[in-house]
Amino acid sequence: MIIEITPENVDSIKNPVFSSFAKTYLQIYADFLSQIGQFGVWLDSDDYQKETEAKYEALRKKGALFRNEGKSIYVNAISPACIACQTGVESETFFISLKCHRECYFCFNPNQVNYEYYSQHERDLIAELDQLHAGGLNLKHLAVTGGEPLLHREHLVHFFAHAGKRYPGVYKRLYTCGDHLNAEILQELKDAGLQEIRLSIRMHDLDQGHRHTLQRIALAKEYIRSVMVEMPVLPDRLEAMKKLLLELNDLQIDSINLLEFCYPFSDPTAYNERGFKLKKRPYQIPYNYWYAGGLPIAQSELVCLDLLDFAIEANIMIGVHYCSLENKFTAQIYELNAGKTVPGYMYFSPRDYFYKSAKVFGKDIPQVLAYFERKKLLDYHHNEQLQYLEFHVKYVKRLMKMDVEVGIATSVIETREGDSYMRELKLDLVRPDKFEFRRDV
């Protein structure tokens, strides 16, 4: 069992060197939270941990399917593209431009690199795809997002048609708000080989706006094999979302992706006016994630879990999938870490794709080091300057008869100026007698 080190339990660590390391990481996270506070959206004082765990357990008992260490949960069905998204292997998402006719207060596109430029200019997706193909990239899943892709109708259709020729059998999907869909465009997309279309619904729209989108969803079903809805779930829209699930079920779409609602580092006014607050602990592991979605809003996850429960109880037949913000991060970590050459004491975790290692500190080093030498175990590194002994996590259980405190380090491989190095991000506590290698890491 891994014990997360918090400000409340850090003083229980008796080893002064270990305690010092742990407090350093706590300070790093505290500084991160302090920076968040400067945006003007406040952290919730409650982490809702017990309530969340109770809802998770209830969903397990009712047969909901848990993926990616609980970061992804669904009932009935899930898009194959969502499964591929977990690692991002043989999957690629493109955008023609970031131009959009809507002005959603929760849009995170302004966080994208070169947002201003790509709001005015297009990318040549066919040339980009040809370059990837020439470089030997295998693709099984391909998507176009935006901005709003249908503002570039001709470019979009030609790209999907070309992708089908360049990568026969590739699964092609499109993200759109649906405003520009009509029968003619849908026929063109069908002819170009589009297999999946994902439409978004804004829950702050008036009822007329919902009718507008639902009509286009119904129309899309006449042309495209798989029709989905993908939308962020606001924490104050549970009853409205239940009604929407019933309406989508009547339309017999394939599935809906419930996205954890986020704050995109923009003007906080709309969030503060609605009383929204950030999750008390926004990230499980603090890092500079590529996904530009922002920071999770408190209680959005709870509503998503309630909707999964409702789908089961109401006998909803369409797929209902909760995609957490943490679920969006794993493909990046997999890309950074998978298949890399690392020291023998580092372990690539199949659970979260980070590298894991065990550590003992200061006065605990001599007896552990003596044991390793006696048993001729070589998967360790002794850093005398920083006073820690780092070793493979598979050896933790062997220390259960020793009076030592063991830390579990979580790390990622980064590349800077052409050189790779291991960056440690987090330090947790483990009791050797309660640690299970395959279960815990």
Task: Describe what this molecule looks like in 3D.
The chain has 14 helices and 18 strands. 35% of the residues lie in helices and 21% in strands. It is α/β, with parallel strands linked by helices and 441 residues long. The strands form 3 sheets. A 9-stranded mixed beta sheet has the order 2-3-12-9-8-7-6-5-4. Strands 1, 13, 14, 15, 16, 17 and 18 form a 7-stranded antiparallel beta sheet that branches. The chain has helices at 16-37, 49-61, 80-85, 115-118, 125-134, 153-166, 183-191, 207-220, 238-251, 269-273, 300-313, 325-337, 365-375, 437-440, and strands at 2-3, 65-67, 72-75, 91-95, 141-145, 171-176, 196-199, 226-233, 255-260, 262-263, 295-296, 319-323, 347-348, 355-361, 380-383, 388-391, 406-416, 419-430. The model has no long low-confidence stretch (mean pLDDT 95). Helix 2 (49-61) runs parallel beside helix 11 and helix 5 (125-134) packs parallel to helix 6.
List keywords for this structure.
35% helix, 14 helices, single chain, alpha/beta, 441 residues, seven-stranded antiparallel β-sheet, nine-stranded mixed β-sheet
Radius of gyration from the alpha-carbon trace, in angstroms = 24 Å
**Helix count from the secondary structure assignment:** 14
Q: Determine the strand fraction and express it as a percent band.
A: 15-25%
Assign a percent range to the helix content: 25-40%
Overall, the morphology is: globular
Biggest beta sheet summary: 9 strands, mixed
Q: List the strand order in the largest sheet.
A: 2-3-12-9-8-7-6-5-4
| N-end to C-end Cα span | 9 Å
Q: Residue ranges: pLDDT <50 for 5 or more in a row?
A: none
Mean pLDDT: 95
Structural class: alpha/beta
How many DSSP E strands? 18
